[in-house]
Amino acid sequence: MTEAPHQPYKAAFKVESKPPIPKFQGILIERFRKALKGRGANGIIGLSRQFKIADDNGSGTLDFNEFKKAVHDFGLTLDPQDVQGLFKSMDIDGSGAIDFNEFLRVVVGDMNPFRRNLVERAFRTLDVNLDGRISLEEFSSKYNATNHPDVKSGKKTEQ
User: Fold this and answer.
1) Both 91 and 42 in a single domain?
2) Residue 157 located in a structural domain
3) Which long-range contacts (CB under 8 A, 24 or more apart) does 15-19 make?
4) 98-147 per-position pLDDT tens digit
5) How many CB atoms lie within 10 A of CB 4?
6) Nearest CA-CA partner of 82 in 33, 20, 32
7) What is the chain's mean pLDDT, rounded?
8) What share of the chain in percent tops pLDDT 90?
9) CA distance linking residue 5 with residue 2, whole number of Å
10) Three-state secondary structure string covering the chain
11) What is the pLDDT of residue 75?
12) Into how many domains does the chain fold?
């Protein structure tokens, strides 16, 4: 019996190479991160909470005025051109507004190589048919919820 040749794995997500951030802009981003942490925004839940507080109109995005107000509320003292530069660096798609994914991507930053490798390995494990996507069926075939604390306590079912 012969084995089928191993096909190279095709990643479902694009590992983007962003141009290096100018040093001064990196300093602004770091100050913004520290200000968020100072307000208790540790982890995704805390960041989400701060984002929702800053989203005055409930649109799910921060326009420039909401962002400027948030910078002030976070206790950062920045020149107007620095606020504008920080906003532009966070508005990755150039839409004129920052959605939560953009906000998270900039505030959290890039994954370190160890974590990136771990995520890619987990993805390869879940992507059974190697189509670069994880369907609900693929996920369900690999994840056994029987031992999840909420299932064990009866709060949730395996489904």
Assistant:
1) yes
2) no
3) 15/116
4) 998 888 887 777 778 898 888 889 888 888 888 888 888 888 888 877 87
5) 5
6) 32
7) 78
8) 15
9) 9
10) CCCCCCCCCCCCCCCCCCCCCCHHHHHHHHHHHHHHHHCCCCHHHHHHHHHHHHCCCCCCEECHHHHHHHHHHCCCCCCHHHHHHHHHHHCCCCCCCEEHHHHHHHHHCCCCHHHHHHHHHHHHHHCCCCCCCCCHHHHHHHCCHHHCHHHHCCCCCCC
11) 79
12) 2
User: How would you class 136 by CB atoms within 10 Å of its CB: exposed for 0-12, middle for 13-18, buried for 19 or more?
Assistant: exposed
Amino acid identity of residue 98, one-letter, is I
**Domain span including residue 62:** 23-108
In terms of domains, do 60 and 133 share one?
A: no
One-letter amino acid of 47: L
Q: Which residue has the tokens 């532009």?
A: 88
